[in-house]
Prior knowledge:
By secondary structure, the chain is an alpha/beta fold. It has helices at 5-17, 31-41, 50-55, 71-80, 95-108, 123-133, 167-183, 273-285, 295-314, and strands at residues 25-27, 45-47, 61-64, 84-88, 112-115, 139-149, 189-197, 203-213, 217-224, 226-237, 240-244, 255-259, 262-266, 318-319. It has 2 domains: 5-117, 3-Layer(aba) Sandwich (Rossmann fold); 121-319, Dihydrodipicolinate Reductase, domain 2 (2-Layer Sandwich), CATH 3.30.360. The protein is 36% helix and 27% strand. InterPro entries: Gfo/Idh/MocA-like_OxRdtase_N, Gfo/Idh/MocA_domain, GFO_IDH_MocA-like_dom, NAD(P)-bd_dom_sf. Keywords: Oxidoreductase.
Amino acid sequence: MGCAGIAVNSVIPGIHQSNSGKVAAIASRGIDKALETAAKLNIPRAYGSYEELLEDEEIDAIYIPLPNHLHMEWSIRAMEAGKHVLCEKPIALNAEEAQRMAETSRLSGVQLSEAFMYRHHPRYSRIQEIILSGEIGEVRGIHGVFTFNNAEDKTNVRYRKEWGGGSLYDVGCYPISAARMILGAEPEAATVHAFLSPEHDHVDMMASGILEFPGKVALTFDCGMWAAFRNTLEVLGTKGRIEVPSAFVFEKASILIHTGEGVRKEPQEMLNQYALQADEFALSVWGEKRARFGPLDAVANMKAIDACLESAYSRKRVLL
């Protein structure tokens, strides 16, 4: 649903490469764009409105990469039409919206998942195995960063505050979700400092923060859309640390384990994370595998983002 860059450049090619998915139709707000994209990506059917896509009885599931403020509306409309939904991150503008989406999923009996593609690569299961093995000792903290520079594109939807613009929504959500996944816990408090840019509708162009987790463990992170590109994660333990050089988007798949015995590099296969995401989503739709990251996980992630945004704008520590 929509011809966003993430769909055209990453998700649709990933579905094409998956073992389970087939992109049967694409819709845009106008037929010309839909036809152009369908021809480019070998998609059989094109629609000039989102409603037409929902009326297609042959469609099982819909991927939604629309601007953030439209996620709730069109996810709910799709689910009420009996379609399973894979919605781009962040799933909504706040936890209240995400909860409404989760409730619609429950009542409609369809799957709803948030599209954090990186979580489906097996290296994150491997990271959790290493932690559980005790090799790096007790986890003392996690540090994650995701920054890029797109500030010159003043018309970008990321710079519309009412549309859910800002770096916390766009890239800060990645280290936040990663820490929650790795620790298997929810944060208790957030403290965030942000650079709010008048040139970009006062959205947070850069944010640095700390999320406090149970057990006196914290995530420290920074995210930005007006900074040099970075994309890393580190899990710090009492006896060692795990370094993920390309944590969310791929340049390299390897992970590095630092201990008193030296540095061990574990190469990881360069699998298409979007294809893996499509396959895992399909298995949950078919009932062959329980979804690891269901609607309530998305609600919990939005609660953390809500607290980060509140802290950034109020310049106070916020309890969850």
